[in-house]
């Protein structure tokens, strides 16, 4: 994390190909990248406290530019409580004409993804949760100066965030991921940093979801994480039938340090919940990242989703995409889930791999 940081060449290429969009929502500005065929239901990526929309550039380059999924990566805007986040995120989705979504959230982003799924169940069709948690009480208890986080100076906020990122000897690909995230922290304003930390010290917890566990994948790293192991265990206990996709290594930012494994598990999840890529449409996407014809499909899905379903609003009954059970997997497809990859494996959540308790979340 020390010295002069040089952006990787693939990131420079990404920036030259995918434009950064900005949309004002009331008094908040949403920054996001959106690439892939508009006819494909989008995967929306939510970063942690230290992340920006840029941290998921490897997912966009692989899943959108090569495979044919639509991936939207967003910044967490400067909002100060969870209810304001839910309302602002819903307005953002309306502004970009997206109704049904699949969410991939890491750390704080995974917590916010669950909150949105709880309070807006008709819109969320599946979840991928990585190194995340169900409640914030342990973080608020560990941060003695939590009551004044909104007034803390920028240098103190940055120091608090950066000291929670592992800075010891580590493999080069993990060190590179840390350097990249640290460079993104430097782009955040004082209000951005303060509002994100306010999320983690504002006592809140995720309530029951209407979403079936079969539409949830839990993807964590086994080496270390800023999220205490006991909070990860709570997540697994809440969703006992969720898919487990654990990476042997990757640190706090596996989407950067282990992108191939992460992207594979994302593809398996999207296939399992019925989202089909459109690689044939990628070539037709103009340089501004837009593509396809969203209007008709979104209108049809929105009309279908709003129909009474007689099932208490359960999202599994509100659209063709998510009402049917996961399709039977071929032996090859099933094997990718059950057999170890070069650095990834699927296991049941357990306590045998203990993680050192830390006070920060990213």
Automatic annotation (TrEMBL):
InterPro entries (alphabetical): AB_hydrolase_1, AB_hydrolase_fold, Maspardin
Pfam families: Abhydrolase_1
GO CC annotation, single: cytoplasm
Extent of Basic and acidic residues compositional bias: 296-307
UniProtKB keywords: Cytoplasm
Keyword Secreted: no
AB hydrolase-1 domain boundaries: 41-162
Protein location: Cytoplasm
Region (Disordered): 281-339
Protein name: Maspardin
Species of provenance: Gossypium australe
């Amino acid at each position: 994390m020390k010295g002069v940081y040089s952006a990787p060449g693939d990131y420079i290429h990404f920036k030259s190909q995918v434009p950064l969009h900005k949309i004002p929502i009331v008094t908040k500005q949403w920054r996001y990248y959106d690439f892939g065929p508009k006819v494909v239901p989008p995967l929306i990526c939510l970063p942690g406290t230290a992340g920006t929309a840029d941290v998921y550039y490897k997912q966009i380059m692989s899943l959108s530019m090569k495979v044919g999924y639509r991936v939207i990566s967003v910044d967490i805007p400067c909002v100060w409580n969870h209810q304001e986040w839910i309302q602002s995120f819903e307005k953002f989705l309306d502004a970009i004409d997206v109704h049904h979504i699949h969410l991939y959230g890491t750390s704080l982003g995974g917590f916010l993804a669950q909150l949105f799924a709880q309070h807006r169940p008709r819109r969320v069709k599946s979840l991928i949760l990585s190194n995340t948690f169900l409640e914030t009480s342990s973080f608020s208890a560990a941060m003695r100066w939590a009551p004044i986080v909104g007034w803390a100076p920028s240098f103190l906020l940055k120091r608090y965030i950066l000291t929670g990122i592992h800075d010891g000897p580590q493999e080069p690909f993990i060190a590179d991921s840390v350097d990249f995230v640290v460079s993104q922290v430097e782009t955040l304003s004082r209000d951005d940093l303060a509002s994100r930390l306010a999320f983690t010290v504002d006592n809140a917890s995720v309530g029951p979801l209407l979403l079936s566990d079969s539409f949830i994948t839990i993807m964590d790293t086994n080496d270390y994480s800023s999220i205490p192991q006991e909070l990860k265990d709570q997540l697994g206990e809440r969703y006992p039938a969720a898919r487990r996709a654990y990476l042997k290594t990757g640190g706090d930012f596996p989407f950067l340090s282990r992108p191939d494994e992460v992207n594979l598990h994302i593809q398996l999840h999207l296939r399992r919940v019925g989202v089909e890529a459109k690689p044939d449409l990628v070539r037709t996407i103009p340089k501004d990242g837009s593509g396809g014809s969203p209007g008709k499909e979104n209108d049809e899905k929105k009309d279908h989703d709003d129909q009474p379903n007689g099932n208490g609003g359960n999202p599994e009954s509100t659209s063709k995409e998510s009402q049917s059970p996961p399709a039977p997997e071929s032996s090859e497809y099933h094997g990718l889930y059950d057999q170890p990859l070069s650095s990834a494996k699927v296991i049941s959540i357990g306590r045998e791999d203990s993680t050192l308790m830390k006070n920060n979340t990213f």
